[in-house]
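Annex B, item 7. Sequence and structure tokens for protein A, then protein B.
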Amino acid sequence: MKKAFILVLTAYFCLVANFVFAQSPAASDRNLILTEGTAEVMGQNDSAKIFIAVVTEGRKLEQASSENANKTKAVLTTLKGLNIKHLKLETSNYRVTPQRDYKIRPPKITGYEVNNAIVVTLEGFETEPLSSHVSQIVGKALESGSNTIQHIQFYLNDQSVLEKKALNLATQEAMERAKTLAEAAGVKLKGIVSLSTQPMYSPPQPLMLRTAEMKTDAGGMAPPMEVGESRIRVQVSIAYEIE
């Protein structure tokens, strides 16, 4: 009796499941056209980050630290004195590294290296002023005590306008492709089943500078700068149901 009841109950659930699936067919059972569109837009960079550092060495930690502090203070004072609008200064890293002689067992500390890294940020400038300011900052930083320019990165501060433009172009391309496919296949587009996007922003490559090349003479302390452009690339995927 119990076994017969279980068989009846199982059959009931099977009928219910078949009815539900019959009422709502899976997306995989629909007739679809899948297409993609891509777009890439360029925009002039209006901002920059300059990564500079003061590196000092000494046999004693106090000596290396004191020298580094004095040089760093001089660099900061000089850069603030440029009176560049919206210029931001921020310490990004401070590192003390013991120098060891590994020929001796156990290794012996022979001195210390002190590294004080600073990030200089400029945002929202026209091309020519931005190029001029960055060149001036690099030159003045080297003149006042910095001995390392790690790298310079130009970028676009607000990417939303470029992204919207790229999305619009990519979507239009995907839709046009779907229409072309439908016409060629002799079918009609009913409506969009799914729409998705994937941003593919390509950040600008940082401009690498070697200090030794810029300290040959006073005139070479402020090298010319090319601001460049930022590029945003997006991909849009669309699924159309057809009839």
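Protein B:
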Amino acid sequence: MKIDLHIHTTYSDGMLSPEQIVDTAVDCGLDVIALTDHDNVLSYKVACDYLENKKINLEIIPGVEINTIYKGFEVHILGYFMDEKNSDFIEMLKFQQKARIEQTHQIIKLLAKKQGIKIRFEDIQKLVAPLGSIGRPHIARAITNSGGTVNVMDAYAKFINNNSDVYVERKTVSPHDAVEVISEAGGIPVFAHPIDVDIADDLTCELVSYGLRGIEAYHRKHSPAAVEHFSTLAEKYGLIVTGGSDFHAPSLNHGTILMGKNFVPDWVYDKLIIEKKRIDLA
């Protein structure tokens, strides 16, 4: 079985639509995927409808990736199998979306005032699927499209970082809240790519008491030593291990598709399903 439990679509900062993701997953020989867009779950139904109409043999797990900021670190919490109608879960997504929009409007004003770069909110909004999550990649692309920079990387270097005089940090829920809400919604909260967070070990210990149930040990950023470290950490706290490519777009190098390329063992899927059944019976 070939699985990839961390994939993004045009409903956040991915470059492929849910339908294109399904087709690509099939082409890559994947058996199970999870769509984990930032702060929304809109792509899941689109992908499932396409799957049903095309009669494609692929399992799609409902997922999400909640972006939080904690002690100066970007901490991302994955969630799987949540009840999307849970009121607290819905409110969390609304809060996150509102914060994204407010941040974007503030950056637009500062770009015009301090840099003379004029872009409209609509210029950014059209770069993401309807009602999808606007983020830094979309702002960077809009700046480039307006002629403010020569390319997206230049936009990031000049404007989309904490040291820029036009950048505004987004207000977010805490990782503790994200874990708790996903858990209360019947989902499985997982610490995403913990290699990015210097305080990951201590934070994992904190999050366990809020309902954390997994760690993404298998990730394209993780070396074999990192996989071993976070797998050991998972064992220490009785957590399940998950993994995925964190796919956003084909590689710039010859259009290489990285979806499903990083090794994720079969038993990761099995453990995830067992955990969901345990939650449903609790």
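Comment on protein B: Residues 3-85+187-281 form a domain with the TIM Barrel fold (CATH 3.20.20.140).
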